[in-house]
């Protein structure tokens, strides 16, 4: 299977680069006296060799002066090519005029690059071995939510996984939703994994996706291309159905609830207070211990109140609004819990002790699709 190669610098390589002037990130501050440094090298191809039609991409620790880039990258044996710079990713790209020779070792030299303060990097070099030409298009191998999924949380987030690194600048040129969510593409947030093979998409909606409705996300083939511009063979459309709004006031301490085999019950009352309770009769293989992390982006969490805790139970709220907890229930048929208020648009739960079928949300006890999930924080 073809893989997209990222030439990561292992410990020995990092030490060598440090001696040559390549190393860790530095900040582009006023009074900057530190030169820019190389933090990553990216090529396309097999795991151990670059495709002959691959560009050579060098990532810097800070923004550089574009005026210093034109002769920054040279190759031995000599290769003609053009240089471009992406300020958003601090990436300098050398694109050969013609394909490199197959099964050939090239020495790539980087020098004379200056940051915006005029600090010039010390020259450094590295070797790459070429393989064959890359003619295989990328594919989408997984999406979250998946095509045909139901009871999808209202949090407008998507995860797309590819077979290889894709061109981040191109991605997003041909993507749409049905119904149209009314958010311009320039406001969508794309977060890429380090290997460039996975992207998390967040659409900043004020009230999340519409509940109990069929939605679709279409990814056009023109949006997905690898580093050598092989495009995805066909467009992909993901259809899914959203869940109900889970904000119903319930009573987890009722006689019926205490006899159920559950670990967690989550709901939000009419006073905008979130509740998470755990206990009851533990399913086989589980203990009645509540343990996890809760956070609310773009706002944080406050007014945290433990419910029916014993000695040894712990909870901690960090300054950036991340609430962690670890509390066990003494005996069977008991309930512990937490109450809190959230200020962000969504509340994300990451529950460590349990399975999706042991988590019940709202009056109708809906299950999430995983033990990490997000719920819309909408006023009642």
Structural overview:
With 380 residues, the protein is mostly beta strands. Strand 3 (45-46) and strand 4 form a beta hairpin. Helices cover 4% and strands 36% of the residues. The model is unreliable at 1-28 (pLDDT under 50). The chain folds into three domains: 6-129, Immunoglobulin-like, CATH 2.60.40.1220; 140-241, Immunoglobulin-like (Sandwich), CATH 2.60.40.3710; 255-376, Immunoglobulin-like, CATH 2.60.40. The strands form seven sheets. It has a five-stranded antiparallel β-sheet with strand order 1-2-5-8-7, with no helix packed on it. The protein is built from two helices and 27 strands.
Assigned CATH class of the largest domain: Mainly Beta
Strand sequence of the main sheet, in spatial order? Answer: 1-2-5-8-7
Mean pLDDT: 83
CATH architecture of the largest domain: Sandwich
Which secondary-structure class do the elements indicate? Answer: mainly beta
How many domain regions? Answer: 3
End-to-end separation in angstroms reads: 51 Å
Uncertain stretches? 1-28
What is the count of helical runs? 2
- Nearest-angstrom radius of gyration? 26 Å
β-strand amount: 35-45%
Q: Count the strands?
A: 27
Order of SSEs: EHEEEEEEEEEEEEEEEEHEEEEEEEEEE
State the share of residues found in helices, binned by percent: under 10%
CATH domain fold name of the largest domain: Immunoglobulin-like
Largest sheet: 5 strands, antiparallel
Q: Choose one word for the global shape.
A: elongated
Question: How is the topology of this model organized?
Answer:
Blueprint: E1 6-7, H1 11-20, E2 38-42, E3 45-46, E4 49-50, E5 56-60, E6 73-76, E7 81-86, E8 91-96, E9 105-110, E10 124-129, E11 140-144, E12 157-162, E13 175-178, E14 189-192, E15 198-202, E16 214-219, E17 236-241, H2 255-259, E18 264-268, E19 274-279, E20 289-295, E21 301-307, E22 314-317, E23 322-328, E24 335-342, E25 346-351, E26 359-361, E27 372-376
Parallel strand pairs: 18-26
Antiparallel strand pairs: 1-2, 2-5, 3-4, 5-8, 6-9, 7-8, 9-10, 11-12, 12-15, 13-16, 14-15, 16-17, 18-19, 19-24, 20-23, 20-25, 21-24, 22-23, 25-27
